[in-house]
Write a structure and sequence with these properties.
By secondary structure, the chain is an alpha/beta fold. The protein has six helices and five strands; from the N terminus they run βαβαβαβαβαα. Helix content is 45%, strand content 17%.
């Protein structure tokens, strides 16, 4: 008998407590394990305290005080080069989003539904669905 596969663990980083709580709920209801951090510093501290923690994806708010999402992603990739990162933001200003789009980094706009979020996470983790899967 093969072991039951573990659920995926997602690190969610957002400085807005309500957004952090709602995102945590959406992901938990969809079967993901969630680790929440309310700042970039808190997220980095998690990796320092638990270097062997199994995190499968980081969902990072783009605009946060002290350390923005791109800066946090760069620091995370120093510690975990292969960790997929998905950015999210309520800002629609093209200047703010330019670093994300210029690098072709995965992004999803807030507000978002749980279906949108889960679909985007699956794309980042497993690649886009083929046409036959969409049918």
């Amino acid at each position: 008998m093969s072991p039951t596969p573990r659920s995926k663990t997602i690190l969610v980083v957002d400085d807005e407590p309500l957004v952090l709580s709602l995102t945590n709920s959406m992901l938990s209801r969809s079967g993901y394990d969630v680790v929440a951090a309310d700042s970039g510093k808190a997220a980095l501290r998690l990796f320092e305290l638990w270097p062997d923690a199994e995190v499968d994806l980081a969902l990072i708010d783009l605009i946060m005080p002290e350390m923005n999402g791109v800066q946090l992603a760069e620091r995370i990739h120093e510690l975990r080069p292969a960790l997929p990162i998905l950015f999210f933001s309520a800002y629609s200003d093209q200047e703010i989003l330019r670093p994300i789009f210029a690098r072709g980094l995965p992004y999803v706009a807030k507000p978002l539904s749980s279906v949108q979020l889960i679909n985007r996470i699956r794309e980042v983790l497993y690649g886009p669905k083929s046409e036959s899967e969409n049918a």
